[in-house]
Design brief:
Blueprint lengths: L14 H21 L8 H31 L2 H24 L6
């Protein structure tokens, strides 16, 4: 009996199964690529927050320093400082409003 051929032939590799496995693997790779997070650095909200903070601090400090310098040179120190401070605040708010009205894709 050992010389007899087996009743069933071994299953041959089917080209359709290979093609299906290749398509499935390609689809899984595309899905992994699509679901991978794309953020590589700070996002746009973080950058815009830093810009607002820099505008606000720069306006306050710049207006204060320039107002104090002008007040010291002209002899009207407290008024020069206050005018410079309020002008710096006004410039900072103008820059913040201009940045807020700008489209994100620009």
């Amino acid at each position: 009996m050992s010389d007899d051929e087996p009743a069933r032939e071994p299953i041959q590799e089917d080209a359709r199964i290979d093609a299906l496995e290749a398509r499935l693997k390609a689809a899984q790779q595309r899905e992994e690529e699509r679901n991978r997070p794309q953020v590589s650095g700070p996002d746009a909200n973080y950058r815009s927050g830093n810009k607002v903070l820099a505008d606000l601090l720069g306006g306050l400090l710049g207006g204060t320093v320039i107002g104090y310098a002008i007040g010291s040179l002209t002899g009207t120190n407290p008024w020069g400082l206050l005018v410079g401070l309020f002008l710096g605040i006004g410039v900072a708010f103008r820059n913040i409003i201009r940045a807020a009205n700008q489209r994100p894709d620009e």
